[in-house]
Amino acid sequence: MLGLAVFSLGTSEFMLSGLLPPIAADMDVSIPQAGLLISAFAVGMVVGAPLLAVATLRLPRRATLVALLSVFGLGQVAGALAPNYELLFVSRVVSALACAGFWALGAAVAVATVPVTARARALAVMIGGLSIANVLGVPAGAFLGEHFGWRSAFWAVAAASAVALVGVVALIPRIPVPEERPKVSKEFRIYADRQVWLAIVATALAGGGVFCFFSYLAPLLTDVAGLADSWVPAVLALFGVGALVGSTVGGRLADRHLFGVLLSGTAASTVLLVALALTAGIPAAVIALSFLLGASAFGTAPALNARMFDVAGAAPTLAAATVTASFNLGNAGGPWLGGLVIDAGYGFTATAWAGAALTAVAIGTLAVSLRMHRRTPTRVVAGSAAGPSDVPSGVLSGTPSPAEATAAATTAAAAAAAGRGDGGGDGREDAAR
Fold first, then answer.
1. pLDDT digits (tens, 9 = 90+) for 72-89
2. Is 357 helix (H, G, I), strand (E, B) or coil?
3. pTM here?
């Protein structure tokens, strides 16, 4: 159900990639200025995720999800009715704040319902809603924008939000507030950990590199590759199909080979962005590479999410908020950087080069994180084995059940036996702790 709700949120976040030309024409602004609407949404997510995570830390979970989804839907209505660029910009920020809160809380709830060893898969289910948004929602928005005007896409997302709201009310159970209330001061301690900051930087750079290019894919397809406007929804859908495949496969692999997925996926995105820069004038190449880029970008997303919960597991609500903010730092900075290179006269193709530069730096950041991780193994498994205080399900119940603590201890013992070094650290050290 959370994944289905994320479908409407994701459609709103990314559908502007296929609507920039008509919005720019209608609002009498340049395409890079219209691209700032994507950055505005992302900035709202960056600010809103930690802010709302802290503000709602002690509130009932379902009621909070319902309130945030309602505000998001009203933001879409405001965007559809916006008479000028400034009000459209404000509506995007308001929608983003609500979206950020829903993402952060929803991710914390999703992680809390599964064992430590299934985090990436649980997050992949939720991210699957975002992938389906790219497969169906974003191209549908581009189709509506082409045939019925860009405002119709906003109305469609508002309607989808209403359906999702009914589903959350009907199907998400009432989750009681924990008897032992979460302490904000305790959760904020995660920011003293260098690994948390490395995870933030890597996530922002990996996402920013892809969306530096993807945000301007529509004008690149028409102005550089020479495709007709009718091709834009199809190529966006193909990117989304790649995203769905990538998040499904990446979610399954990340639980066993976390850093392997992170490094190989980010490296693949870098190579694909360079290939897109070199072949931007060849329609068939751009179409095929767009599919592969969707797969590589979203294939690493579950691993990036899981890594944040690994290093910040003692504060699951802020961990969810932080990873949401991190992705959207990239989603804000990527389109902004893309707009800069376009305004500088380098053209739409340069967005791929700029994106590749960002993902290349992300690889270096991940390499540093892996080196530090091997010296100091992931503490979440160790902490869970040692005691119940760090088990994420405390978000829902205050303390984990004995079965959950036993499962965590079993996970540590299994890691010790396997001696895995890819995503789980040194198993013997974990078991000793």
1. 999 999 999 999 999 999
2. helix
3. 0.67
